[in-house]
Amino acid sequence: QVQLVESGGGLVQAGGSLRLSCAASGRTFERYTMGWFRQAPGKTREFVSSITWNSGATSYTDPVKGRFTISRDNAKNTWYLQMNSLKPEDTAVYYCAADPHSGRFYSGYADYWGQGTQVTVSS
To answer: Residue 64 — very low, low, confident or very high, per pLDDT cuts 50/70/90?
Structure first.
């Protein structure tokens, strides 16, 4: 059974940093796109960032460019989201996800999802 388990969320002041981790088990994600989504209260879930297993190509939504960095450790079957210069509008539940098709991944579809981790940024 495939499981994705997020960790690293928490409460931080504006301008601070957090590092999210997504540890996967049950399969490897060769040729997959992995990444992060978030959902703020009262809003729909949105794409944040992605990285491909094979090439490590990355993508970011505009609001986080220059502040967030996605990375992966294939040997550990884990990917990360380093979040710097956090803003109150980054407050959301962050979900990691993985899918074999990058096109639909950006639209919010993924075969595998984590349970979510809360990130709260205070002003």
So the answer is: very high
Question: What confidence category does residue 20 fall into, taking pLDDT thresholds of 50, 70 and 90?
Answer: very high
Over residues 6-17, the mean pLDDT reads 97
What phi and psi values does residue 56 have, to the nearest 5 degrees?
75, 15
| Count of C-beta atoms within a 10 Å radius of residue 26 | 10
- Cα separation, 40 vs 30, in Å, equals 30
At residue 54 the predicted structure's pLDDT band, cuts being 50, 70 and 90, is: very high
Element (H, E) at 105: helix 102-105
Q: How far apart are CA 103 and CA 107, in angstroms?
A: 7
Token pair for 110 = 């993924």
Query: Cβ-count burial of 28 within 10 angstroms (0-12 exposed, 13-18 middle, 19+ buried)?
Result: exposed
Residues in the chain: 123
Amino acid making up residue 75 = A
Residue 115 DSSP one-character state:
-
